[in-house]
């Protein structure tokens, strides 16, 4: 299952609502029933010598292809601009695609 980790200098008022919306939104892009999401907000982040709203996103998924990465980059940037008021030039999205043999789940590995 994909995992999205959000780090931002914006204080999110309702964590549960934010991560539920992001999970649902991302699941549609991944074509999965759900996506695991975590949030760390109100962090000290300086981006391009400014403390204006900014973010760092990590997206981890086995077998994520280039088309999905491109779509996620666009869609996540739009979502975060709406929810965090952080423009797409105020954040980075990092994609990680581990081999299934390096992902544990249900007491075993995925590959």
TrEMBL record:
Q: Which domain of life does this protein belong to?
A: Eukaryota
Q: Which Gene3D superfamilies match?
A: Macrophage Migration Inhibitory Factor
Give the record's keywords alphabetically: Cytokine, Isomerase, Secreted
Main location, first listed in the record? secreted
Q: Output the Gene Ontology terms for molecular function.
A: dopachrome isomerase activity; phenylpyruvate tautomerase activity
Enzyme class, UniProt record, top EC level: isomerase
Protein name as catalogued: L-dopachrome isomerase
């Amino acid at each position: 299952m994909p995992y999205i980790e959000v780090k931002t200098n914006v204080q999110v008022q309702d964590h549960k609502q934010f991560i539920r919306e992001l999970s649902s939104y991302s699941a549609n892009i991944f074509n999965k029933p759900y996506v695991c999401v975590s949030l760390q907000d109100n962090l000290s982040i300086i981006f391009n010598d400014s403390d204006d709203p900014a973010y760092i996103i990590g997206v981890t998924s086995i077998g994520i292809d280039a088309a999905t990465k491109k779509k996620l980059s666009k869609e996540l940037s739009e979502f975060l601009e709406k929810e965090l008021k952080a423009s797409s030039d105020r954040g980075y999205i990092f994609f990680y695609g581990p081999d299934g043999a390096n992902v544990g789940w249900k007491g075993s590995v995925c590959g």
